[in-house]
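Can you give me the bound-state structure? Components:
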Amino acid sequence: MHNTYPNFRFSLVSACFGTVVILVVVYIALIAVVMSYAVLTVEFSQSVKNDEASVATLEGQYLANVAQIESLDYRTAGYVAPVAKIFVPATSVTALR
Amino acid sequence: MRAQFRSRIRLVLALIVIAAVLIVVRLYFVQIVHGTEYAQKADRQFASGGEGPFDRGAIYFTDKNGANISAATLATGFLVAINPQTLANPEAAYTAISAVASTTLSHDAFIAASAKKSQVHIEIAHHVSDSSGKALNALGIPGVQVLRERWRYYPGNSLAAQTIGIVSYGSGNVLAGQTGLEAKYDGTLERSGDSLYSNFFAELFSNVGNLLVDAKDAREGDVVTTIEPEVETRLEYEIAQLNKRYSSRESGGIIMDPATGAIIAIGSYPSYNANDRQGVNPTLLGNPLVEQVHEFGSIMKPLTMASGLDAGVITPDTTYNDTGCITVNTRKICNWDHKARGVVPMKQVIMQSLNVGASWIATELGQERFRTYFTTMFGQKTGIDLPSEGHALLSNLSTTQQVNFDNMSFGQGIAETPVQMIRALGALANGGVMVQPHLVSAIRLDSGITRQLDWSQKTPVFSATAARETTQMMVEMVDEKLEGGKAIIPTMSVAAKTGTAQLTDGRGGYYSDRWFHSFVGFFPAYNPRFIILLYTDDPKGVQYASETLDSTFLDLVHFLIDYYRIPPDRGVASSIPSTPV
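Here's the bound-state model for the whole set.
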């Protein structure tokens, strides 16, 4: 009589071979993941650093402008000292209560 | 059975052959078709190393609105190097490199470097801009390596340079903070060189603890200072103008919040450009306001006065007979103009800066109490967060000759750092309590947590009454004496004192014609927002601090009132007032 069931004979060598193949594939895949992660991290980190450097350049321009304004003699720009200063007395915070 | 086995063998063999063919085809493409491209890529990676580009935390200024502006950060660009072994056309390479890099080697030096065929990496140009580096890289010149580079960049150039400090190679081959905050907070600013390409799983199993709590996350971060960039700019501008005007050896200033010890601005002239340190005198790299000591002269008198008031040996109404000159231990002590004032009250000691009066208070105080007060004020370092803080020279406090105490009472024979001096004088502006001067308010950790630093240590010196009574004398000095009474600000009480000290000649004596000028002031006098200390060392052509530092001090006061919109503390009626300027 013909056996219609599949023949699943256990072989220790085949099992070990299969396990090794799976482990190798997984290992290679994990290395690929780690390397991809590292590359992405480096690229992202560099991108952030580039942006920070751009901000630093703008900050440098800002500070240079501040220095220029501080060293500017306002009289050479046509301004004169005010004749008088007028102070507005502070309104009491309880005035409306 | 055998046939089945044979067919399986053939199948496996076929698979192996197919795999081998695929590998050979792949190798053909890698080595033959794209070989040159990969070789150049490998060549460029030769010098990149495993640690990656330089990395370091930032140092920030804090403006009056609380916004942070970089004081020290990183710039990015490219480093250009050559590999003489693969450099085919040095002339063409030099032309291309010099077109994008302003600081490259000379032509002859480049040709000589390219002839060194035994070497594979010679650096030609640093700090090449991002766009220029990418453009050069796109040319793909064989033997020219364009490598990513980061370097320390100070957006303010010379702004607070001596305080921020520098990063450079010390004794080893690692870039580290060498001076200023860069050195003091090096442990926070430095970045550990973890390689991103390390085996994640090996790290996982060997450093499980780091996955939970990473120690460097609690250590590495950015440093937030209390320095206000616009105030710092203004102070440095005024100091530079002052120094140039009088050809002084050095000038400096500090602006501090007397209630907290937060330093808003600190600077001296000459200084240096932190982004271009070639040819800079190494002595300028330190911070003279923290490291160097001076005899400050008469700005010590308010401290002597407050000591006498606090000890109860005098009151503001106490009088003494001013004879113009006195002789103590065979040494003669005189007022600045050698003139006698007769019987005068205590406030005249401050208002007319009378040396005889300060000596009289020191005598009334007695050596033991004088020693106690001055040791409390100057016997310890301030603990400011800058390296190499200097010690005050207090040897005269250990003597028993009264003339030494008399001299110290008006600021001669005792030397302190400017930071020590402003801390002690700050006690007058802070109810008699000294605070801890500091420059860094917080550490912003990479973990996202901001850690506020604790600078709450306080040292009581005088009673609040003694401090207030001394302040009142200093206010009257500004209102009535400073610039002949013209310096008065009707809507703002300002307390101040000038100081003029003779410079030591290095042989145990003093020059008769060389001076150290100092000036201290705070406002609003009875609830101060700022205390300002100024000095100029060895100004030429002037004798008194009132001639050199008055205008600088008043410019700063008016600037701060306007910039911080400090409301008037006097002279404003309920109706709309108008104040002459």
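A couple of observations. Chain A has a mean pLDDT of 82. The longest strand of chain A covers residues 84-86.
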